[in-house]
Amino acid sequence: MTMAQRRVARLKDRLLTGLCVLAAVAVALFALSRGNPRAAAIGAGLFLGYAVLHAVMRRLEPAARVVSGLGADAREQLIHYRATRTAGQTALVIVAVGVAMSLFAKWDTGLWIAGSAMAVLASFVVGLWFFSRES
User: Fold this and answer.
1) Does 100 lie in the same domain as 60?
2) Shortest CA distance to 128 belongs to which of 74, 86, 73?
3) How far apart are CA 131 and CA 65, in angstroms?
4) Which of 35, 41, 108, 127 has a 20 to 30 A CA-CA distance from 88?
5) Looking at the structure, do residues 6 and 67 belong to the same domain, yes or no?
6) How far apart are CA 25 and CA 29, in angstroms?
7) What does 51-85 look like in DSSP terms, one character per residue?
8) How far is CA 36 from the centre of its chain?
9) Which domain holds residue 67?
10) Rounded CA separation 3/7 (Å)
11) 107 phi/psi in degrees, rounded to 5
12) Residues 66 and 88 in one domain
């Protein structure tokens, strides 16, 4: 893929994400003007969720090339390694805090499991973004 093709692809990706955000705002405003806050929250949430999903998938493309082995260079492999290491470190910290809270504060484990899965995934995505900007 040439640089011009990458620029066009990035522009299309950002345009789609931007349009999803605009659609979320439009749906929320329209539903709120009709007096339906529940429809505003659900409609805007769906559009924003799709925008976030699309943005995350765009960021994970280099990692997918690393995993599949198609076109991954040393830089992308290093970014993937660092993001994976960051996610692992985040998981270890969450486990330590979770065990401490379970032992000393008698917290429910269900919330910890759901929150931990979300935090580890988020740390991986943020790690990919951060380390790809750094290089």
Assistant:
1) no
2) 86
3) 16
4) 108
5) yes
6) 6
7) HHHHHHHHHHHHHHHHHHTSS--HHHHHHHHHHHH
8) 29
9) 1-72
10) 6
11) -80, 150
12) no
Cα-Cα end-to-end distance for the chain: 20
Together in a domain, 3 and 66: yes
- What residue has token string 């969720």? 49
Residue entry with tokens 């990035």 = 10
Q: Taken in order 22, 24, 26, 28, is the CA torsion positive or negative?
A: negative
Which 3 state secondary structure label does DSSP give 55? helix
pLDDT tens for the 135 residues of the chain, in order: 566 666 666 777 788 888 889 999 999 999 999 998 988 998 888 888 888 877 777 776 666 666 655 666 777 777 777 887 888 888 778 777 777 777 777 777 666 676 777 788 788 888 877 877 765
